[in-house]
Specification:
Blueprint: H1 27-42, E1 47-49, E2 59-63, E3 73-85, E4 88-93, E5 101-106, E6 109-115, E7 121-127, H2 128-141, H3 152-166
Antiparallel strand pairs: 1-2, 2-3, 3-6, 4-5, 6-7
The structure holds zinc ion.
Length: 167
């Protein structure tokens, strides 16, 4: 069995905080990235943001291949959305909101800039699932969750269901 760090769920204030930029790449950061990749894989996620492991840092990992294709694996430090085009609506979930899914409107294609784990500047053009995952994970770094897109009625329903689930 794969041992991994538990994923922080809704209710923990770290998820609502704006995460801090990464200023140095050291062993702690490399360990955090490894922990994030392990937790993402163990939970069949396509992406994970550092606040989801309780670290308020601007780090995201992505893998849209279930750990099968190294080319689909991405680590980005201080990612920035620099361009977005089109619109795509699809159902989305979040490992920090287990059991919850909602339709989310996202840009269909994006350009994202950031640093690799080696500290090299990289620019990624993505569409489809990777584009959706990038937008979702960058939202996490800004304290934004998919429930923040719900209208007040849906949000109220969600909060009531969530409370029932927690009790
Ligand atoms: Zn999420």
């Amino acid at each position: 069995m794969m041992v991994h760090k538990p994923i922080v769920v809704y209710g923990d204030p770290v998820l609502l905080r704006r995460a801090e930029p990464v200023t140095k790449i050291d062993d702690d950061l490399i360990r955090l990235v490894k922990d994030m990749q392990d937790a993402m894989l163990a939970n069949f996620g396509v992406g994970l943001a550092a606040p989801q492991l309780g670290a308020s840092l601007r780090v995201i990992v992505l893998d849209t291949s279930d750990g099968k294709d190294p080319d689909q694996q991405l680590v980005l430090l201080n990612p920035e959305l620099i361009d977005a085009h089109g619109e795509s609506v699809a159902e989305e979930g979040c490992l920090s909101l287990p059991g919850f899914v909602t339709e989310m409107s996202r840009a269909a294609s994006v350009v994202v800039r950031g640093l690799s784990i080696e500290g090299k500047a990289i620019e990624i053009e993505a569409e489809g699932l990777p584009a959706r995952a990038l937008q979702h994970e960058i939202d996490h770094l800004n304290g934004i969750l998919i429930i923040h897109s719900l209208n007040p009625l849906q949000r109220d329903l969600f909060e009531r269901k969530w409370k029932q689930r927690q009790s």
